[in-house]
Amino acid sequence: MSNSMGGFIDMLPRDCVSKILSFTSPADTFRSSMVSSMFHSAAESDVVWEMFLPTDYMDVVSRLITPLTFTTKKELFVCLCNPVLIDVGRKSLKLEKSSGKISYMLSARELSITWSNDPMQWSWKSIPQSRFSEVAELRTTCWLEIHGKIRTQILSPNTRYGAYLIMKISNRAYGLDSIPSEVSVEVGNEVCHDMTYLRHEDRKKQQMECMFYRNRTEVLSKRVIEGTEGISNERKDGWMEIELGEFFSGEANEEVKMSLMEVKGYQLKGGIIIEGIEVRPIH
User: Fold this and answer.
1) In angstroms, rounded to a whole number, what is the distance separating the alpha carbons of residues 146 and 274?
2) Of residues 236, 186, 255, the one with CA closest to residue 83
3) What digits encode the pLDDT tens for the residues 237-249?
4) What DSSP string describes 65-98?
5) What number is the average pLDDT over the span 104-110?
6) What do you get for the CA distance between the two ends of the chain, in Å?
7) Given this model, what pLDDT does residue 219 score?
8) What pTM was computed for the model?
9) How far apart are the C-alpha atoms of 33 and 220, rounded to whole Å?
């Protein structure tokens, strides 16, 4: 910024500069605060950071499991840039620091998991690696079906989102990658379908299972284009994720339905640990 421009900005009222910054982004505001003392002062204003917070931020604060300590809207924004538990610990919320866009994670308890109340098929337990008090571990089943729902009203408007199943595959896992699973995301009349494999690291074991289930595998694998089927990716937090699909969050309040299903192979499977479904902006 030139000296003449900087001098002109410094002549503007602080409230005016704050109003201008409120129409930018959190990233722009953080950078602008280093331009001059005027910008630094204006960038601290609640007028700026209230625009970057969710419109229902007061409601969000009231639903927190652990109260946050803050005296300014900027401090609240920074606090919410780290995952916080809400709704009796069954959901997690996080703001993207550069844009202020909202991410949510629905815990396994917030999902509809077929037969999850049957202790012979699923077990609920607490593990230190999870942000939630409980995760769901599949013991054994021939019918893997997981559904989650969220409304676009609580997400950032006019934003492209991705939905991801957050999970782990234990060393004792079996039958998960013999048959591809079907994943989908549905919003109104828009439906995104795909196929994915719940890959296991034990390749020798996978090859033996694929030989045993050869016929069913061949039939279903024709629906998966080689090299483009979904795969699990490792996350920085130590979990793995499978993309379920994408959707656009517009101005309307619509229900988003997300799912992963493997109900056609009929082979027994077990060893997957479900933490939840994360919904986050796509860049």
Assistant:
1) 10
2) 236
3) 889 999 999 999 9
4) SS----SSHHHHHHHHTS-EEETTTTEEEEE-TT
5) 98
6) 29
7) 46
8) 0.85
9) 56
